[in-house]
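Hi R.,

Here's the chain you asked about this morning:
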Amino acid sequence: MARILIVGGYGAFGTRTAQRLASETTLEIVVAGRNLEHAQQAATDLDGRFPAAVTAAFVDSVAITSQQLATIEPDIIINASGPFQDQNTQLAQAAIENSCHYIDLADSRDFVVGIRKLDAAAQNANVLIVSGASSVPGLSSTVLCHLARDLASIDAVSITISPGNRFDPGEATTRSVLKGVGKPIETRRGGSSTIIYGWQDMRRRHFGALGSRWLGNVDVPDLQLIPEYFPEI
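And here is the predicted structure, written out as C-alpha cells:
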C-alpha cells in the first residue's frame, strides 16, 4: 500500500488532490503543512468520508530535514505548498535522501528550472523528481509537444490561462500572482530576447463561447523551457 504525503494538503489545490487520492482504497494519505491544526482538521474530514486511511503531520517544506521526513515514511510526496517563488528545494532533496518519489505543482520559473540541479542525485537514488506539474509548464508543454508532432515548423507560441470565476485559488496562488506585478520578465519576441513587465500590456482576447477575457504578462517556466527545447521558435 503506497503512502502519499501531501504537503499543503489543506490548501486550494492540495485539498482537491487529497480528496481524489483518498477515494482509492489502496492508498494511505498524510495531509501535511506548517499548520498542524489545519492539517488535522482536513485529515479528519477526509477520513470520515473516503475509504483511504488519512492522517496528519507537520511539515515545513523549506526547512524539513531528511531525518524528519524519515519519521513519516512516505513513498511519494506531492508538494502543493505554494507560492513556490518563496521556496527552496529542501523537500525534494529530503525525498531523494529517503528514496522517495517527489512531484510538485510549481509554476515559478526559477524554482522549476533550478530543480534540475537535483537530477543526478535523483537518478542515482532511482527516484522520480517532477517539478511544474501544473497548468504551466505541465499542461502547456504537453499540448505543445503533442501539436508539434504534426507541424513542419513552429514560429511562435502563445499561452493563456483563464481560471474559472467560481474557483477560489486560495491565498498561496493569489500571493504568487500578485508578487509578479510590475516585475521584469525576460522573454522572446520577434526572434530576440526582450524584457516585459508583470501584468502590463493588458489586452482583451475573445475565446469563442466563453466570451472575452483580459490578459496580462506573467512570468512562467515556459518562457525559458520552450526556447531550450524548441530553439527555432
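One quick note: The chain has a mean pLDDT of 93.

Cheers,
M.
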